[in-house]
Amino acid sequence: MRTVFPSFHFAVDRLSWLLLALFTSWIVLGSADTKQTSWPLHPKKPVIIVWNAPTQDCETQERVKLSLDQVDIVSSPAQGVVGQALTLFYKDNLGIYPYYDTKDTEVNGGLPQSVSLSQHLEKMSKDLDTYIPDHQAKGVSVIDWEEWRPLWIRNWSAKDIYRRKSRELLAKKNSTLTQGQVATAAKEEFELSASNFMLETLKQAKSLRPNQLWGFYQFPDCYNHNFKGKMDSFTGRCPDVEYERNDELNWLWNESTALFPSIYMSSDLRSTDQGRLFVLNRVKEAMRVASVGDGLTPPVFVYSQPTFRKEMTLLTEVVIFWGGASYATRSGCSDLNNYFRGPMGRYLLNVTTAAKECSQKLCKFNGRCLRRAPDSAVFLHLSPTTHKIISQSGKLKVRGSPGQAELKAFRQHFKCQCYNGTKGEGLKYFKFNKSIIIF
């Protein structure tokens, strides 16, 4: 593995793997016909860090003020918190979501083909008024519906109940059908209803809250968990059939204005090269499906869960660090604060500054840097000969500017992915259309 500046590699080894492969959404894509993408959430910041954990009580109850200076958006996944820059919607607070609970009891009809779409959309409108009261609010909205998947074949294990109940429902309505006919028709009815339910949800969401970026959590998925007992030969590549299945979801990628893959990894993969490959391929697949269609490439928001051990994640346009209630204890708040004030904070500052400098020098701030060779192990890091990270008044700061070696490395290893409305090699000549900027 190599970085743009190999002498800075020690920082990667010392720090948690938590951020090693940072930079994949714009770095892994490198084809000659790279599509334009939307402008970043914040001007002149090609990479955004989001903290999405219920740590709001750290300061008020535990008397620990978190040092989140390197975080651009702070939000809580708690359902009682409203009007945030990032909002999570669950199965019980956005419309009428049909599912079966852990006791196999149907809720809201249980199946997407058994719920009233009009009633769902009506309640959804009211829920949006509750959680995003400002109709023109700019932000990110994540729909976290995990009970069933829109592709029939992917409802395995505990989710098989949706296939079984779909067959039972169809057999009751059509008693003359053979078992094979029931299986075929049930699959078609389920997938049609599931896709329609998700599509209409997205359409209404974008209509009622047009300045939000909308998508579904864990979409797309790569299903590259086939490392058990095969660590030595594990490549991290998504199974071929999963590429094909994700292609069947083009209707979803085309309607989504953001994608939210997860890169949570098993403890078996932490601190391993296989872990890097696991994450790399999951984000590469997200970027592949993001490029479908004729419109702009939607931003990819990678969900990661920080731990106080060595692990690795990737940084895309946006990395969302998610956490549960365990972070909101006295010890959890204290450990987390030390983490942000220590190596994690320093590395976040390092790579986000490097991404910003590459965007500035190579793209005139009108695009983000992409690897020229998509699979090369080249990463953006600040050179220790030209930059220094210091602590000033309790906050981390960067001193220095890119030297000639860094500028040469930018040109050698990276190229620009233009933001919407810009053009020209190196973005030396660009056309700026203010009306198309969302953030």
TrEMBL record:
It comes from the Eukaryota. It is found in: Cell membrane. Disulfide bonds join C58-C333, C222-C238, C358-C369, C363-C416. One of its GO terms (biological process) is hyaluronan catabolic process. It is an enzyme of class 3 (hydrolase). Its EC number is 3.2.1.35. One of its GO terms (molecular function) is hyalurononglucosaminidase activity. InterPro entries: Aldolase_TIM, GH, Hyaluronidase. Keywords: Cell membrane, Disulfide bond, EGF-like domain, Glycoprotein, Glycosidase, GPI-anchor, Hydrolase, Lipoprotein, Membrane, Receptor, Signal. Belongs to the glycosyl hydrolase 56 family. Catalyzes hyaluronan degradation into small fragments that are endocytosed and degraded in lysosomes by HYAL1 and exoglycosidases. Essential for the breakdown of extracellular matrix hyaluronan. PANTHER family: HYALURONIDASE, HYALURONIDASE-2. This is Hyaluronidase. It comes from Poecilia latipinna (sailfin molly).
